[in-house]
Design a protein that fits this description.
CATH class: Alpha Beta
Largest sheet: 8 strands, parallel
Strand content: 5-15%
Distance between the termini: 53 Å
CATH superfamily: NADP-dependent oxidoreductase domain
Number of domains: 1
Radius of gyration: 20 Å
CATH architecture: Alpha-Beta Barrel
Oligomer: single chain
Helix content: 25-40%
Strand order of the largest sheet: 9-8-7-6-5-4-3-10
Number of strands: 10
């Protein structure tokens, strides 16, 4: 696996990250036990990967605990360990959000579960409209100064929210976010409108989550999205019909048709093609993979080390293209870049 810079930093991460939301059996068919989780972690590290991403709310903290027991037998310095906080972790009024109280408590608990003395990348999981940015990013800056956190990142921010955070940190000489973790895939391409240009301009790493659109781009839904295979994310959802309706549309059918055609053309699986397309997108640093078995991880790792032919990439671009209106349409872009030197 090749390495890429984590944004503007000197730290290097593998071109694929490992997401661990599946770690921690809780009875859902798509979650996995500790033994399987450890085998996946071992294989990921053996492949050259080093970025392991989790969150305090994954399996109510169980994901972090599983990583922690595995980490005690690893060379800690060879791992880029990332976690997140923002969402509710308990019944109390302060067990949620990006307040100083909640963030300091969240970091302390994550360190305990992960059995480590520092986090390489600590990400705020989403925007908090109730807490002033000064409180949130002042706290994050202090965590870096105290040595508990190496780098700061954000997830699920909109463009204006991210830029506002960046400017605040610069004004106060605080540690700036070095990464964004957004949803991005062949299916979720609105990320390209504001977020990717912003990250390119500001030098932020982009770590896409759900690169296979909850598994729909993996090729497993051969009987249609409304007939998901047993144990899949859709089949085990609380309301499978409502979950499936997000993807059961003409645009997704066009994407899947182009994806399967490309996979057949290049002799790869649909999952490998979808991930390879994403790896080559401008600004993308490392898509975050999810896996429920070593075999599934092995397949996804096959997305690296090759390139889609231009004609297959163009076919996927066109099939997944979103309707673009002002101010993101080409005409508006041409107006912005027109020669303004005067007559």
């Amino acid at each position: 696996m090749q390495t890429r810079r984590l944004g503007r930093t000197g730290a290097l991460v593998g071109e694929l990250g490992l997401g661990t939301m599946t770690f921690g059996s809780r009875g859902e068919g798509w979650r996995i036990d500790e033994e399987t989780s450890h085998r996946i972690l071992d294989r990921f590290i053996a492949s050259g990967g080093n970025l392991i991403d989790t969150a305090d709310v994954y399996s109510a903290g169980r994901s972090e605990e599983i990583i922690g027991t595995w980490l005690t037998h690893q060379d800690r310095e060879e791992v880029i360990l990332a976690t997140k906080a923002r969402f509710r972790t308990g019944p109390g009024p302060n067990r949620v959000g990006l307040s100083r109280k909640h963030l300091l408590s969240a970091v302390r608990e994550s360190l305990r579960r992960l059995r480590t003395d520092h986090l390489d990348l600590f990400q705020v999981h989403a925007w908090d409209p109730w807490t002033p940015l000064e409180e949130t990013f002042g706290t994050l800056n202090r965590l870096v100064e105290d040595g508990l956190v190496r780098y700061v990142g954000v997830s699920n921010f909109r463009g204006w929210q991210l830029e506002k955070a960046l400017q605040l940190c610069r004004q106060r000489s605080w540690e700036e976010p070095v990464s964004l973790q957004p949803q991005y895939s062949l299916y979720a391409r609105a990320t390209e409108f504001e977020l990717l240009p912003l990250c390119s301009a500001e030098g932020l790493a982009v770590l896409p989550w759900s690169p296979l659109a909850s598994g729909v781009l993996s090729g497993k839904y051969v009987q249609g999205i409304r007939n998901p295979p047993a144990g899949s994310r859709i089949a085990t959802a609380e309301d499978p019909g409502a979950y499936a309706s997000r993807f059961d549309n003409d645009r997704m059918r066009r994407i899947l048709s182009a994806l399967h055609a490309a996979a057949e053309n290049v002799g790869r699986t649909p999952a490998q093609v979808a991930l390879n397309w994403l790896l080559a997108r401008p600004a993308v640093t490392a898509p975050i993979l999810g896996a429920r078995s070593v075999e599934q991880l092995e397949e996804n790792l096959g997305a690296t080390g090759w390139s889609l032919p231009p004609e297959q990439r163009l076919a996927l671009d066109e099939a997944s293209e979103l309707e673009v209106t002002y101010p993101y349409d080409r005409r508006a872009e041409e107006q912005q870049t027109a020669d303004r030197s005067g007559p």
